[in-house]
């Protein structure tokens, strides 16, 4: 569940809770800035900020913040001995901002705005007693705004500024065993997933978990509903060469940042030859990843899904 949404629901209900946010990292650390953890009265509810004694200390600080209704900035120096004991990367420093959830209408509205917005900036005062104006504000950003650090402390140390951006979309064409496994794994990895199949019995939302949208349609209708952008990935895993070729013909030259086709190298040769004859530019076909996924010897649908999503993560992060 979205951490912002869960936090808003707790705050609106007046239920004790706190949010821990990795506000700044220096050197080599186990988690990036912007990583969040929601803590309830009994401990961690959603997310993680690194595990081990770091997380235990942060949970303790979160419980204290709940009791005192006052935020705190927790700093951990991951020296080589501590990192070795925990199995973490060594040599870094991490600053984690812990804030109690408060049932204040303006505060809750900011949490809800962050949960709903495609992009935006959330600005939170580090010291609430001395804050001038609201302790937490939200500012929308255009979807194409330049990317920056997910979270950072301002130079004067008075505010934590978080940049919210939508996760990339992954369009999976084909809702068979492999396509379904890829969709579920991609959703678990934090992508926004849309599964598309022209067979209604396969394009059944009941077959997929939360976080996966399902569309019963052909490729033409799907692309009208979901125009592709450079932030999108397409994985083609339909029931046969003909269907794969029809979809690839439409998406190979699209703006999509990632296009992958399930199949062998021989299939790539056959499909490429046919689409080249149909007039699809060679440059567009060259960028298609066939076989899709990392070469880990995957055989089962679940193993194939791991290899594909691992490659998608690499594309997303680089």
In short:
The chain is of the alpha/beta class. The chain has 10 helices and 14 strands.
Layout of secondary structure:
Elements: H1 3-13, E1 17-26, E2 36-40, E3 43-47, H2 52-68, E4 72-78, H3 80-86, E5 92-100, H4 105-116, E6 119-125, E7 136-140, E8 151-153, E9 159-165, E10 169-173, H5 177-188, E11 192-197, E12 212-216, H6 219-225, E13 232-236, H7 241-251, E14 258-261, H8 265-277, H9 282-286, H10 301-317
Parallel strand pairs: 10-11, 10-13, 11-12, 13-14
Antiparallel strand pairs: 1-2, 1-5, 2-3, 4-5, 6-7, 6-9, 8-9
Mean pLDDT: 89
DSSP, total strands: 14
Structural class: alpha/beta
Rg: 23 Å
How far the N terminus sits from the C terminus, by CA atoms, comes to: 26 Å
User: What series of H and E elements makes up the topology?
Assistant: HEEEHEHEHEEEEEHEEHEHEHHH
């Amino acid at each position: 569940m979205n951490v912002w949404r869960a936090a808003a629901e707790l705050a609106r209900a007046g239920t004790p809770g706190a949010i821990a946010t990795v506000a700044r990292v220096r050197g080599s650390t186990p988690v990036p800035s912007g990583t969040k953890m929601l803590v309830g009265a009994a401990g961690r509810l959603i997310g993680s900020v690194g595990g081990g004694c770091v997380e235990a200390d942060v949970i303790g600080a979160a419980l204290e913040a709940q009791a005192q209704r006052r935020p705190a900035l927790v700093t951990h120096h991951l020296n080589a001995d501590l990192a070795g004991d925990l199995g973490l990367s060594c040599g870094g420093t991490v600053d984690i901002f812990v804030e109690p959830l408060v049932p204040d209408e303006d505060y809750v509205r900011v949490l809800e705005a962050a949960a709903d917005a495609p992009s935006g900036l959330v600005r939170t005062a580090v010291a609430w007693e001395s804050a001038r104006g609201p302790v937490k504000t939200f500012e929308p950003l255009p979807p194409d705004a330049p990317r920056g650090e997910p979270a950072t402390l301002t130079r004067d140390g008075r505010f934590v500024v978080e940049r919210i951006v939508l996760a990339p979309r992954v369009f999976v064409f084909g809702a068979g065993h492999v396509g379904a496994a890829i969709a579920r794994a991609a959703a678990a990895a934090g992508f926004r997933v849309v599964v598309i199949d022209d067979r209604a019995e396969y394009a059944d939302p009941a077959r997929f978990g939360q976080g996966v949208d399902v569309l019963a349609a052909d490729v033409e209708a799907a692309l009208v509903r979901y125009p592709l952008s450079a932030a999108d990935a397409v994985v083609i895993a339909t029931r046969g060469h003909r269907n794969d070729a029809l979809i690839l013909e439409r998406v190979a030259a699209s703006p999509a940042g990632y296009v992958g086709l399930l199949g062998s190298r021989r299939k790539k040769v056959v499909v490429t030859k046919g689409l080249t004859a149909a007039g699809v530019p060679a440059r567009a076909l060259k960028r298609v990843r066939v076989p899709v996924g990392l070469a880990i010897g995957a055989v089962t649908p679940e193993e194939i899904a791991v290899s594909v999503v691992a490659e998608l993560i690499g594309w997303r992060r680089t």
